[in-house]
Amino acid sequence: MQSEGRCGFGGEASARLSGFYPSFRGPSPVPTMRLVLLRHGPAGTRDPAAHKAQSRLWFAHGAWWAVMRAPERPAITIHRLDPISDTWIDTETLVDERTNAKADAQWDGEHLVIASAVDTSGASRAARIIRFAFDEGSARFVMESDFPVRISDLGVEGIVVARDSTGVLWVAYMKDAQVYVNHSTDNDAVWGHHVALPWPDSFTTPDDIASVVAFGEGRIGVLWTNQRIGSILFTTRRDGDPEDTWTEPEVALNGQDLADDHLNAKVTADGTLLVAVTTSL
User: Fold this and answer.
1) Exposure string (b/e) for 20-42, b if CB count within 10 Å is 16 or more?
2) CA distance linking residue 277 with residue 269, whole number of Å
3) What's the pTM?
4) Would you tell me how many other CB atoms lie within 10 Å of the CB of residue 43?
5) What is the pLDDT of residues 197-248, one digit of tens each?
6) Is residue 35 a contact partner of residue 17, using CB atoms and an 8 Å limit?
7) Using one digit for the tens of pLDDT, what is the confidence trace for 158-193?
8) Do 113 and 129 form a contact (C-beta atoms < 8 A)?
9) Contact by Cβ (8 Å): 153, 121
10) 247-256 b/e with 16+ CB inside 10 Å = b?
């Protein structure tokens, strides 16, 4: 059984198949695995509510939850899975009202943090951080005060959020074929300015992707594809180090047609980092 935490895969494949979840029906204490279908949003939205590096499912308070679009409207809202009918129920908690916004969700057991943005230019499409708390009375997530917070000037592609062991939130995304990172400062509602990773290989193509993940014993890592050089690269930093202290990028995969704009990173209970990728072969 999966414990509470971040889970689920975004991207094209999961637009229809959201993933497996434990079914608690029946007398057996061992959960079986079931498959749940997610539907696309209404006409006019280009694709599902999540980018390929993003996560939109989490398990909390005895239920599975997701950020997705209701069939009749373009806004992203929080849905709860009804295990009896195998249907997603729209709780009508608004995450992002913008058509074609894409969101990444992280539940840490106390707060639900969602990063969302539209991947086209324009100030109205800028990246946002939104934090939610679970309201026991209404059995739904509610947006906390001081949110949403705008954390970029323009729209960005595929924003992903992670919280390090000191409580700092980090985001990574692509903008103008460059990998950018940003982080919270005093609290989740106060952010610095985004910076581009400093290496030549962080300059990519317009069709690449980035992700950020907390893993191991107090580390944050940034993964990205670079189809210009045919590589998937990885850089890390220790939590608490100066913000510009990153390791020299490690080449995780290299070769003709091996880098594509598809990756998704997850961490196992023992801290092992797993990355799912596709190639152009």
Assistant:
1) ebeeeeeeeeeeeeeebebeebe
2) 21
3) 0.82
4) 7
5) 999 999 999 999 999 999 988 999 999 999 999 999 999 999 999 988 999 9
6) yes
7) 999 999 999 999 999 999 999 999 999 999 999 999
8) yes
9) no
10) eebeebbeee
